[in-house]
Design goal:
Oligomer: single chain
Number of domains: 1
Strand content: 15-25%
Structural class: alpha+beta
Low-confidence stretches: none
Number of helices: 3
Helix content: 40-55%
CATH architecture: 2-Layer Sandwich
CATH class: Alpha Beta
């Protein structure tokens, strides 16, 4: 079960993530990744999809050629959870490799 993060804890979590920001509504964290080309972007999406499936927690995302925009939120809690932050860290790790 995921736990909602809010207030100072959410600000701290976002501050520890590289390039992630709080959505306009304050209920999600989001980031756009850029890759060398479509194949690299698609490979990244595949790795994220596998991690999301293992966690049974799936992103809102879009892909245009070499760009992937990801938005993590926990709808059942109405905001950002510790699971969203964990998966955002995984995204950063996948993008770096």
């Amino acid at each position: 079960m995921a736990d909602l993060i809010s207030g100072d804890a959410l600000d701290q979590a976002i501050g520890e993530l590289d390039g992630w920001s709080l959505s306009a509504g304050g209920i999600a964290i989001e980031k756009t990744f850029a890759f060398k080309g479509f194949n690299a972007a698609f490979g990244f999406m595949t790795r994220v999809a596998m991690a999301a499936e293992r966690a049974n927690h799936h992103p809102e995302w879009s892909n245009v050629y070499n760009r992937v925009t990801i938005r993590w939120t926990t709808h059942s809690l109405g905001g950002v959870s510790d699971l969203d932050v964990k998966l955002a860290r995984s995204c950063d790790r996948f993008a770096a490799s």
